[in-house]
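User: ok so my PI wants both of these folded by tonight, can you help

Assistant: No problem, let's get them done. Here's the first:
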Amino acid sequence: MRYELVIFDNDGVLVDSESISNRLLAAYLTELGHPTSYEDSIRDYMGSAMHRVHELVLERTGQRLPEGFDDVFHGRVFAAFERELKAVVGVVDVLEKLAGDRVPYCVASSGSHERIRVGHRSTGLERFFDEGRIFSSEDVGRGKPAPDLFLYAAERMGVVPERCVVVEDSPLGVQAALAAGMDVYGFTAMTPAGRLAGATRLFAGMGELVDLLLSASDRGAR
């Protein structure tokens, strides 16, 4: 494999959490007087850090979300994770292959460290990710679509950006990876391919990912 580091997004790529969290976010915003459908939440907030929710609501309504919004939302999400969350189908095979071949990998997520750990613990993925492989938007000043998080993860893992590939399922994540100067493979299981414009490759199932990584051609051949 020509890549020296595989950087995974978390929600929707490692853990099948996007449907859960966006359902709950839409319901909570609606409860607070900001009518939001599940489809609205997917379109506006999927792949973003929590500050984007606050910023968009303020921009659109002139109203701030209440103090404690994040804590209440995360409490609901974590409880649902314990009941419902599963690993994305096929991702265990991908991680076992990378670990067996000693290919460096990590996770870089817009979610908090606590959210990442709760999700991994609920799905059994924690065995693949020690503390040194987990990076969150909490670690940097700006979340996706800024490149900061991916650049930080690469620096901490000791790999230059052009030798990294990011696995993402959100438009914001694709934008962030491209801004970081990294290749990005767009996962289209939940996101229409057209919304992941600019991705280096697109794939619909985790069964395709290892083959894509192994067969990746040099940048100049794309």
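One down. Here's the second:
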Amino acid sequence: MQQQENVMALHIGDVAPDFTVDTQNGPISLHAWAGDSWVFFFSHPADFTPVCTTEMGRTAQLAAEFTARNVKPLGLSTDTADEHRKWIEDVNDTQKTTLTFPIVADADLSIAKLYDMIHPDQSETAAVRSVFIIDPAKKIRLTMTYPMSVGRNFDEILRVIDALQLSDARRIATPADWQKGKEVIIPPSIKNEEASVLFPQGWTEHRPYLRTVLVD
């Protein structure tokens, strides 16, 4: 397996470290495999574990939602590709789905360490539930970390992808608890003169620094 030098900490805005690794679908190189898509890269402590099984199944169930957003899911578990193939049979059976996205085989923990997924207070040999949203420029746009005992909220994962993509497309920010179709915020860096061009439909000014607007 080829990969970049170990990274101690990854921050929003960093280029996601590239790696070449085996999956149950064959070898992939992250950057080449991602292409022009976004990536939802998420880790799991181990195969054949209950919370992970539901999360893998939920990701497979949401395949159309990810595709509609030009997002490729990529799982990681600290087991082998052969073990992944056996586990996927359980995932498909218990979660009533068909899992096709790749799951990184990381039995030697090299990718988990590269992405700082090993938290010793949780386990020395299994990854915590990390989330990295990576954009088509291969930059990390969002990170989330859950403890091993807590399953992810996939509604939130889709929500933040929507927020990031809308922010890129329309130069806006999103307020607390924002949902698709709701008002967004015009950042203070955009002055009213420019805002009138970007948002000719007009906006509501709650304060000079807090302007909200509906966008398509």
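Confidence is low (pLDDT under 50) at residues 1-7. The beta strands are 20-21, 28-29, 38-44, 71-77, 103-105, 129-134, 140-146, 184-186, 204-207, 210-213. Good luck tonight!
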